[in-house]
Amino acid sequence: MSKSRSKFLCLDCRIDTGKICEHYFINTDTWISVAGSKTGMLCISCLENRLKRKLVASDFPDVTINNPKYAKMSLRLLNRIKSNYVDNSVGYETH
Q1: What is the pTM of this model?
Q2: Are 94 and 74 in contact (CB under 8 A)?
Q3: How far apart are CA 78 and CA 73, in angstroms?
Q4: 17-20, long-range: CB within 8 Å, 24+ apart, which pairs?
Q5: Backbone phi, psi, residue 21, to 5°
Q6: Which of 30, 47, 52, 56 has the most CB atoms around its CB within 10 Å?
Q7: pLDDT for 40-61, tens place per residue?
Q8: Is 73 within 8 Å of 43 (Cβ atoms)?
């Protein structure tokens, strides 16, 4: 794996979050509570495991990276965000 791709690896399972289309931003307080810092990536599954709950639309602030009109998203991510955006964007299934 190239060094440039290593920043996209999930901190827990080490899957490449870029390749599975799981780029997102959640509320900073929520992220800090489970990740301990502002850096790093977690796939949706590992983030939910750390939170001990399923993500909901209110976990995702209204920022461009969370808008399905601007990026491919896994179906898992799209399903968590979708109530924030009413459209028929195509999502992509992941692990």
Answers
A1: 0.82
A2: yes
A3: 6
A4: 17/41, 17/42, 17/43, 20/74, 20/92, 20/94, 20/95
A5: 60, 45
A6: 47
A7: 999 999 999 999 999 999 999 9
A8: no
